[in-house]
């Protein structure tokens, strides 16, 4: 016993709550026309998830809700609950009792519940399909639909059989797998195109990153080179400075000793020469004498020059005195005054007629002679005066120089006297100081050597200072080009070879190496490295993610394909074996019903042409007919003692019997928990009603039967009878009744 009860409230004519308990394998619902019996069958459809309003005789969801009468108010919602005994776990859910409820509201919103939990329609369909209660509702035969299985097309019939065999769930799964596969393949395409788009960018970034890596390597090797070079160089400089210092200690000390020694010797020499006189005085006197001589020669040179000038001026005077010159220029006013004078003498002479020519000429001659004489005299006076003044000045100078010269001579003489005297006295004393002087010479020679040594050290020191400056610059460069890490060098452990020429050339080689590396690093140009690395890393991660995604999708696609293939096999094998079984049962029921004859189902494949529009530009006039292969189930029947073959040739009663035989055969293979037959027996005569009753009893061994009937024979087979009446308030009423009452109600 699977089906326990059905609770209807607000559904169609059932305004009030009505509960039908199905405690017997066969339940019959009886009542007059229009009392609401078919509404019960529809309540079953409704609660099992039926989506076709037409099959529940409605147009809108609202039509399913009690619409009210003049006496009873309309309901806002229709609710139907169906309760199953699930102690044998016919439904794959871990409850002994399963209650499925569906509610529809006036706004057509539907709600589904399983044991009070809100679920989706899909969950209901899945749950029921595993108990062979499929959506096509082959187990609910509505009024007048008994021969639906016969009138259906081959294809529809096949679907009904598949449903009865419980294959719908696999087909549904297959469809879902196909949809998923399609979506997965689309995703693969999409993700692969994303990867393709990303590839050149990654390639480009990869090259940049390679450069950066190279630069990084260069930089780290530069750091190592620098560290090695700088640590050795700093050791070299420190040791060199120490070494120079040590080397300069002894010469400096010696120099100090020597200067003390010299002082001592000087004292000694000074004591020997009487203390007052010394060779320096001799030198001083010599110097003075030579200075005087120098002065004298300068004075002599000046005197010579003055003598020369004096000679010149004396010669000039002499020349002037002797010279008669006619080339000398005569001022014009003098010549015109001469002319005026001559003119006046001439005019006087002309006036004084008494004067003779001789007197006149001599007078004129005297005037002219006087004129020339005056000119001559004037000239000589100027030049002679100047020359005589010069001579006087020069003579004065000569006298002064002479005096100076004489002074100098005198001074020199005095010095010489003193010098000679001094020399004499030194020579007298020299015998005693000779040794001291000899030693002094020796000491001075040594002093020279020591000085040389110290100045060589000084040169080295200044070289070293330059090297230290260079070193400081190198450290700055190291920090600039290789980072502060490069300058964080450990002082090298002492090494004996630090100052050897091989080591120095090795250091020079290292320096060249650092410079080369520095240039290569600059050429590598690794600017903006961090950002680029980050971008590369992100892009690479993305590409990897996409690669994995493709892999996952390909795997998913493969497993979906496998699933589809498996489902195909399962559907095919289960269908074939199910069809075989149905065929057997069909034949058995048919021959039982008709007392012989034959009936069979066969799988047929037909190609059907469907019209499909093809777009040609903007006009879609051209039509092509695509043939589609379709599988279906064909029914063949042969009546006993008749040659008639085929369904069309059957009478109404025969069609009803044949279809009942097929329906019963179908429900035998995978028996559904219950079967509802709404007046399937309406067309049967008495004899056939009995056969129908027998079959029902046979069927009731496997499925619960709910029969809506007016047939007395059928009622007699039922264990429970429900009477439905239409009350005066226009609502359906339900009551459990005895057989006799039922017969009365039915009539
Ligand atoms: P028959 O024996 O003639 O087949 P029946 O007993 O099967 O009759 P139903 O077809 O189940 O009768 O019931 C039809 C009745 O239900 C009608 O009287 C109809 O008015 C009523 N009905 C249908 N829908 C609604 C609704 N939404 N609200 C109220 N009453 C409704």
Structure description:
- The structure is a single chain.
- With 747 residues, this protein is an alpha/beta fold.
- Among the domains are: 1-139 and 674-747, Rossmann fold (3-Layer(aba) Sandwich); 249-482, no CATH class.
- 62% of the residues lie in helices and 13% in strands.
- It is built from 14 helices and 14 strands.
- The protein has a 6-stranded antiparallel beta sheet. The protein has a 6-stranded mixed beta sheet with strand order 8-11-12-3-13-14, with helices on both faces. A two-stranded antiparallel sheet has the order 9-10.
- Mean pLDDT is 84; it is low at 613-622.
- Bound molecules: adenosine-5'-triphosphate (ATP).
- Adenosine-5'-triphosphate binds next to helix 1.
- Residues 2-732 form the RecF/RecN/SMC N-terminal domain.
- This is RecF/RecN/SMC N-terminal domain-containing protein.
- It comes from Candidatus Taylorbacteria bacterium RIFCSPLOWO2_01_FULL_45_15b.
- InterPro entries: P-loop_NTPase, RecF/RecN/SMC_N.
Terminal Cα span = 30 Å
**Which value, in Å, is the CA radius of gyration?**
75 Å
Question: Which molecules are bound besides the chains?
Answer: adenosine-5'-triphosphate
Strand order in the largest sheet = 2-1-4-5-6-7
- Series of secondary-structure elements, N-terminal to C-terminal: EEEHEEEEHEHHHHHHHHEEHEHEHEEH
Largest sheet: 6 strands, antiparallel
Average pLDDT works out at 84
Shape: elongated
Helix content: 55-70%
* Percentage of residues in DSSP E strands: 5-15%
Classification by helices and strands: alpha/beta
Number of strands: 14
**pLDDT < 50 runs, ≥5 residues:** 613-622
How many DSSP H or I helices? 14
